[in-house]
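Take our chain:
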Amino acid sequence: MTSLFVDRRGVVLELESGAIVFRENGERIGTVPIAPLSRVFLRGDVKLPAALLGKLGEQGVGVVILSGRIGRPSLLLARPHNDAVRRVAQIRLSFDEPFCLQIGKTLIERKLTRQIEWFTELRENDMQVRYELSHALRALEEHWPRIGHASSAASLRGVEGSAAARYFSGLQAVVPNSLHFSGRNRRPPRDPFNALLSLTYTLLHSEIAIALYGAGFDPYVGFYHRLAFGRESLASDLLEPLRPLADQFALALIRKKVLEKDHFSTTEAGCLLGKAGRTRYYAAYGEHSETLRKGINQEIEWLTAQVNEIMATAEDDVRSEDDFEDFG
């Protein structure tokens, strides 16, 4: 399965015999079959009919509309999973604080594991930053027992925040100095690498929300990230262990010179990737999307197993009560 990115002003999309036809100024300029698509990303002045949106939804293809200069995402979800029981169980479990805390601990442990594994690999392959990465690795490893000892979601978020600060200090050592990266900043990002991280996190978050919806979950009801108006909290939950994969992708784009400083522009509104850079980025993201989606699917399969286990236990308890006879 693959992604389709459309970032071209004035293009018109049409449905024709199971394919998307592209027209510009009335002339046909391309055709893409719908069958291999899993996501469609639209940005800019793009027009398409309701029939095409309906066909994409019917085929399980989620549509992400990136609007405005910063590309704020709006999701058009595909046909949902038919089993509402899973969503009911999810909502009930969202009020179970011990369950939510355990889910949060597992997610942050996996995030920390990926960060440590990646930094260990970078340290072995780049002697110039060996000291900085060794220092960051020691700091990250010190957070392992603190995750297990966290007694509440608030204390766990404190551990996560502390680990993130150490992580980005190590990441600063491997990002080229020309990009002026000095740690994570956002809303708006103020340097090219942070702009790249924000864009990748945004796309990945949208992919997770669409996949959760298709798997029968409500993306807005989280366990680690609690309810917040307008936020897909469960998608935010599953994004955490996948962030290191996004970071690796972003750094690879810079190191392989797929993207360079000139592809970005900085104003008072922040640092943004320009049109030429977005074209390069979308092509690279499309090539890498299978790796990212594999990670998404693994996280959703794990979450499904956790919820199903609780559901099965609850069903057993109900059956036990039904079998009990009161002889009083």
Observations:
- Residues 275-323 form the longest helix (49 residues).
